[in-house]
Protein 1
Amino acid sequence: MRVGIDYRAALVNREGIGRYTRELVRGLVELGFDGNLGLFGYTLAASKFGRSELGLQASRAELLRLRLPARILPRLLRGLNKGVDDLVGGCDVYHHTQPNLLDVREASEVVTIHDCIYTLDAGYMDPESAQRMTRVAQEQVRRARRILVPSRFVGAEVVMALGAHPARVSVTPLGCDHIVRHIPPGGFPRSSEPYILTVSRIDPRKNHLRILSAFERLVAEGLPQRWVIAGPMGWGAEPFERALAASPARHSIELLPAASEAALAKLYAQADAFVFPSLNEGFGLPPVEAMACDTPVITSCVTSMGEICEDAAILVEPTDVDQIFEAMRSVCQDADLAEDLVLRGRQRARILTWRECARATLVAYQAATQPEPEAGPSLMRRL
């Protein structure tokens, strides 16, 4: 079975989808499947990663680089009467790893749906982009023989919001072991200044405004921790920027818009607590990355977070500033609680590996080549 994979995001995107694609392929290489891989990297921009960083050194995976703007490729394929599966030398399965519609001529199609936030009228993203992503996801789901999701939560959303038949959905949880590659054998020394950490793009969904309100109370009570935010400004960040500029705690807050992966590992490992009360997550990599770095985690009790973190984190109602504050204060002041969370988190992180994600993905690839189930191709239900 030969598999073609949309590898564009792996080359140019350091965040979510790029991370997923790089580490999935790395896991497939570790499982010895590299000789069956055709990786399609279509981007005008140069790759931000070398083959060693991509985990492709000495591998047999074929990487096809097509240096052209991504928006041109669909028209090019139609003009040539070709499918993207033709460009990777032919394949039995083609895996769409991101919301980008590319024609496939003969291969069975597999798509990863990372979340369904674009289907929600919740102010999480630009409305025009949300409408476009919804249309693309609906078409990808319609065409796919297998739909991969990172959590059971997203699996239910794909059925309810995008009309997927449940028999076509495979849950392939993500890994977090990539982050430990950057931790030295003896670990990092304790930070000279205590801090709590949030790693995410700053946008309304990530809930920075409520974390800020809780942190201001922490500072008012005299706790010494700073708040470090690692992530760029995103869509809708302006209210947070205004609140930060007016905050009495602003001098205790540090913004790091472009931290490298190695720098993130150190930030995680030296933090007193990791705070991530996101309003909606399809999986939520940062909390489990923090667990892998032995850092106590505070996160949301909603969407996928309870499923992913289980009992290894303090779960708070993300719209309740009191709960966020109490959790932060407890972890910062109660060493026994923090150590218990570290131990639980370490055990949870050991289960979530990219090799296991790759193994589950291979099972889904195989299923995509089998005859269609007798059930109809879609089950359109809406709440």
Protein 2
Amino acid sequence: MIQVTINNKFQKREDTYKEILSNGVLDDLVKKVTGHTDYDVKYIDKTNKGRLVVIEQENEKDFVCLSDDCPAGRNSYFQSFPTTVNKYILDKHTNKRIFYYNLPTLDKINIETDYHRMMYRLMATIGTEFLNATEYLKEPIVAFNSVADFIRIRTNELSKKQNNSTYVTVDESNNTVIYGKVYGANKYETTLISIAMNAITMAKTTLYEFVEKDLNELPKASRKALEKIGINIVKMDSEIEKHEFEKGDSLRSPKYISNLLAIYGPKHCAFCDCDIPQLIQGAHIYPVADIKKLAVPLEKKIEMATDGKNGLWLCNNHHKLLDSGIITLSTNGDIKINTEDLEKTSLNFIKNSLVLSRLPEDVITPNFVSYLNKRISAAS
């Protein structure tokens, strides 16, 4: 016999799940999941976290997340889904599936914006089956096929329309690195992106949690779920930054990389066309070695060393050429080659590698120029 279990109370509403699942809605849901119409349903007098319907039959357990029928905004439409995913991952049942069922919204809102489509694709990437999406959405839902695919969509379709709460990149060892905010609704997006990125890569996945306001880590259930699937979670706090700053002059701190991602977007060399993330590094304009020599408090040194305006994305070659002084920058953004002691073949190679003669105007900010002047003064 098919057993359906539903916690009946909403967290912030007076009506119940039994009411919104009447008029054949639950019958349709169960039939789409099981292929059958005969079932027993048990409504429990508890708060429903995850807008979850659990269906059990023989040796199978199914988790069905319901969309928000009264969404207050685009985020609220999906906020319950990560809670369902956490329960799905942490459940010990060996034969289980996860579904999403769209309920009609009481207010006619657009549930097919670029952001909505991205979230649907993330849900599909972790294996979610959509029971009735074709009744509500014009376009089919396609899972992301790689981390690069997600970064491209996030950058091209969404970066100009929202302030990203979560940044994703690939490091020099081909590992997936996620920098996620955990405050407010951001925690839902961070959880879902982390699970989805981990599902499409064989490489190691690390999540760095932003310390923000009074919250500096994901909810306990989210952390347990991410750790269960092998994601390494690291808290981005002052101790990590202090350790990174003190251990060497080639700073690769999580805060610095996340700040560069926030300012410049995905890894792409500022001097050439290279956008292979494994070959791109965060290059300091005012070098860490010179910052360490300053007679200022350690906190100020770390602030300067992790400031995204004190850097550029550069490929390995151009990073070394900048650090060695073979390539220099002027305060108006001109990219120059120091031809002294260069063989003609070397000079031609460098010239051909540069696709710009001047950095874009939006890069040459007052803070950037200030760091550049400090670099020039330290080198003279």
Protein 3
Amino acid sequence: MDVEGGWRKRLGTEFESLRRFFLATNRLPCSIQLDENTAVHWRIRDDGDRILARNDETYEIREVDRRVAELHRVNVRQLAQEVCSTFDWTDAFEQLGRTQHVCRIGRLPLEFDRATVFFVIRRRCEDMIRAIDAVARSASGPFLMLTPTGDTLANSLAWAERSGGHALALTELLSIADGKLRAEANWRATVQRAFGIEPEQSPAYQFRLIGKKYRMAAFDCEPFVIKETPGSFYLAAILGSPRQAIRATYLESMRSGINEIAKTGSVGAPIDEECRRQYGLRLQDIVTELKEHSADLGEERLSQLHHERDILMQTLNSATGLGGKLRENSDADRARKAVGVAIRRSIKEIRVNHEPMADYLAATIKLGFEITYTPPADLNWHL
């Protein structure tokens, strides 16, 4: 903790933009430096309705504003939330101990096995070692420990690694611009090196499954993670088969593992108007032939005509409803609607993370009884 003037001296021009991270307390320091141009400290005394400062060298006494003399502490909770939001980490704040000097702030992405992230504000080496012990007990597994700067890391880095963790300075991962926290472009590679992972060149175009619940997506951009849903499953199958018409019923069977015919009882689209017209003409021909030439036809031919007539009548009756309107095949239509809704919902989730990718998918994927992905140029999707 420090008075407002002390924080302002440390942070310089950045203080005003970062003022939101400081909370005034009711505590007063023993002494403060009233004049920035001198090293003289004035002893502080709370005189009830006023705050007095005394110069021990000259015995001068001044009345000072309480806001000037109050100690200010870092609002670690708000800082932690903004850090997690900056990197899109899972926010999970918890204070370890009576103060916010050692806190759990969240979890890393899946590529780092969702390791726990801790934030430690300690200066002395022995305090840092005690903090690492507390962090290791809370983490019960690999963890990442962040400190405000790298000043306190030199003597504690090896201790953190022996405890199963890794340590980095927050300044290695982000910077401050216009009062906002900005992630460094290479922050992911920095964390990978800390965890002993050789940084890899991430594919420009990817939509790959991570574990069972998430997908890593990228469209010539920084990769982002979305939840695995029926829609994302269908998108992956479609992206892997460009310019091929894939039946909605087939996509459903791929995901469920149930044979397409067994699942739906049908794999085709309902008959259209042209089919009904052709079936009707053929049925008229059969009826005419049976009426006019039944006496001249052999038994085998009569049996064939009767069988064909029955099939045509059954097909037309099942394909039409009231008023002679075509009835859509319920299985194929249900699959068309379900798959279409799932894909649109997945594209909507992608749009939240990267709008150009969502626009591209919406423009190149045609939905219906058959789904087709028709890219203007082939992309090397990593699926």
Protein 4
Amino acid sequence: MKKLYQMPENKVQSRWISLENKTGEKGAGGKANFGRKGSACTNLAAGETLVLADLKGSGTIRRIWITISERDAQATRGLKIEMFWDGASRPAAQGPIGDFFCHSQGRMLRFENACFSSPEARTFNCTIPMPFKESAKLQLVNESEKEITVFFDINCTLDEIHDGQMLYFHSYWRRENPTKTREDMAILPKISGKGRFLGCNLGVKINEQMNNFWWGEGEVKAYLDGDDEYPTLCGTGTEDYIGTGWGQGLFVNRFQGNHFIDAEDGKQVDDSTFAKAYGFYRFHIPDPVYFYEDIKVVIQVMGGAYYSALLECMDKNPGIKLMKAGDGTRYYTREELEARPEHAEVLERFDDYTATAYWYMDKPQNELPEIADVSERIKDLA
């Protein structure tokens, strides 16, 4: 990337794509209403698609800014953003607008990190560079049940010369509600190609049956280039992955953070009851994760508890089976828990997880299926 005070070798063009200049044509901005803010926004009806940018030639998307009139879960999970590169028929990036822009659980958050921001919890900003060689198309699909007013601004540079090492931006959203016991939640399902895993925006809604003990012992694992049963990269715990430890409070850093906790005081409610939901992120910018053949990234769904808490869980939920960490065949018995109530161990859990993965790859499209239907995206959200 050029230094701030240097010009590019070739004549790169700067463009702002918005409803005031839909194509970015030179000298064609702000013509509506005699140049007096005549076309700042549009209404997007339920079921309609709004093309944000349709660019030809080479270039790079530098910044995306969007704001919408409705910002509840129906809108932030019902509006889907899609990105297509170089004439591909399938999107390289697809996800609910809220989750893609690093918000969480259908809520709008006030935050800023290295890739996304929302200064007053009313907007969607992304500054991840997204290069293309032949064309770029960005669009919003309104899969909610209501009309939504949309403002947007896509800032890009055109007529750039990209070399053979250029990678395309990709993103994918998924949810498991609930997860399956002892089956790791796939942050990024296995894909083939060469590239770099950029990071993820994760969310968890705590299973009410298990809300009296810690949920975040799961390790993040990255399977690289033919890894089979065991991965090459393996972390040590959920809060460890985002740079904290011994719990997970509210914080926002450039490359890691826990920017959403659904609790009255923004922290654990008390020593035995934990918050209802969490939203957290990690970006591998200072610590690149490269792959050359394939990659899969997962997070274990595991918790930690004193035996006394597991007894309480059994009392509240007659018939529940609590699986020990291990080979998947062993479960806790009341007798062993009563014998050592002050003992603590990690164990398997099942919760409601969402994940938005971000990565660069050498192909303009990936083999992942269309994201879940809007009914599944908004299920159980306020």
